Amino acid sequence: MEEPEPAGAAEPPPALRSLLPPREFLCSRKGQLLLAESVLSFITFICYIASLAASFMMAPLLEFMLALFLFFAYASKLNEKFKGLYWPLSDFLRCVTAAIIYFAISIAAVSKYNDGASKAAGVFGFIATIVFAIDFYITFNDLVTFLKQGSSDSPERRKSEDEDSDSDSD
């Protein structure tokens, strides 16, 4: 006879479990950075909606949606399934542009507007700038490592391809 499981130890239904990211990804550095970027972008978006600087709300909204997409794309390993898109480079460009845009609109929100929501949006924007800068620094280091590894393999690969070719063009 099977023993009933305690109520607290029940696993979520399979449909809900498929929507949740794996625990390994949530504990990884990339998962935590993407989660922090999503949360900070959403908070900044809400602050801009409630402020006089509502014209700046589109940048945090787009960054929230992009960070959320990449969070679920990396969690579901879409980067391994779709090899046509160079994921680290696109992630690096997203982080660089986000850091620059957040820095610019945060300076404008803090210096130009006097309401509390604009100041809060500016402060969260500065924090988001730091998180995006950390992410693009780490992504840049991974990108450089990958490019160095790829460039060291390519001369050997070209040499073996030249030896294997059987052309009599002389």
Automatic annotation (TrEMBL):
Membrane topology: Multi-pass membrane protein
Highest taxon of source: Eukaryota
Record-annotated MARVEL domain positions: 25-144
Region of interest (Disordered), ranges: 150-170
UniProt keyword Membrane present: yes
Pfam family membership, one: MARVEL
Protein name (Swiss-Prot/TrEMBL): CKLF3 protein
